[in-house]
């Protein structure tokens, strides 16, 4: 678990105490501030993006900048890091992971469709978001499978995650795709090792890179389903279709 990489977390997102819940789990502002202050004193710079009452009775659930969650009692004398499970007749339900999934959906929904590079089939049956890097071998392999994804009815929505970071060679290359008039064609050329000459432009690559870090993405390709589940790595069209229930 990446919970204790505090310095990395602080770089991913700025501190915010916006603990607003829509399900009756709102936290008293005094309690909220006490939790934030205590955690900040123990771990300076740790980014808190939300606090709500937990399903675990007597605890509060604190969401960190990379989507990880910790649980604390009101006096913050101890906190727990990990997943909260609920036993049901159908087996154990990972409540924490379900909330992570929803958080991914909500964050990806903040990205405008025109800020993605989309390959859409004639008969769309499912859509996924793929964080990609043009220099990543498995990203290139995924792109070579594009016709098969489209034949299976899977829409691929690319978002940028140049693994070497903002300002790197990979970053500069992938920006060319977002600045091209024919974005799909530019992406295809870049992933086949060709160069693309397009003018500089305002582009969402740096913002998408930061969003990926906030989502906990560290490798590419990273496939995220419509319900927020992460499928790491390259998956052939047949396997991805099966995972999507097609």
Distance between the termini: 32 Å
Number of strands: 11
CATH topology of the largest domain: Glutaredoxin
Can you tell me the CATH superfamily of the largest domain? Glutaredoxin
Query: What is the gyration radius calculated from CA atoms?
Result: 20 Å
Strand content: 15-25%
> Number of helix segments?
9
Helix content: 25-40%
- In CATH, the architecture of the largest domain is 3-Layer(aba) Sandwich
Oligomer: single chain
At the first level of CATH, what is the class of the largest domain?
Alpha Beta
Structural class by secondary-structure content = alpha+beta
Can you list the strand order of the major beta sheet? 7-9-8-10-11
- Identify low-pLDDT runs: 1-24
């Amino acid at each position: 678990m990446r919970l204790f990489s505090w310095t990395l977390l602080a770089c991913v997102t700025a501190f915010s105490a916006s603990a607003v819940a829509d399900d009756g789990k709102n936290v008293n502002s005094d309690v909220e501030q006490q939790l934030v202050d205590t955690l900040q004193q123990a771990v300076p710079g740790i980014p808190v993006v939300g606090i709500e009452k937990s399903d675990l009775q007597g605890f509060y659930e604190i969401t960190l900048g990379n989507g990880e969650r910790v649980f604390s009692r009101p006096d913050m004398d101890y906190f727990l890091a990990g997943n909260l499970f609920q036993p049901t007749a159908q087996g154990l339900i990972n409540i924490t992971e379900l909330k992570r999934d929803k958080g991914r959906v909500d964050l990806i929904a903040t990205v405008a469709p025109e800020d993605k590079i989309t390959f859409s089939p004639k008969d769309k049956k499912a859509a996924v978001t793929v964080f990609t890097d043009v220099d990543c071998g498995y990203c290139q392999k995924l792109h070579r499978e594009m016709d098969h994804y489209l034949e299976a009815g899977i829409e691929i929505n690319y978002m940028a995650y140049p693994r070497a970071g903002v300002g790197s060679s990979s970053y500069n290359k992938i920006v060319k795709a977002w600045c091209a008039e024919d974005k799909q064609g530019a992406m295809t050329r870049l992933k086949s090792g060709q160069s693309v000459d397009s003018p500089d432009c305002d582009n969402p690559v740096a913002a998408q890179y930061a969003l990926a870090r906030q989502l906990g993405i560290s490798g590419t390709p990273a496939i995220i389903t419509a319900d927020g589940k992460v499928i790491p790595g390259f998956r052939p069209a047949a396997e991805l279709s099966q995972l999507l229930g097609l």
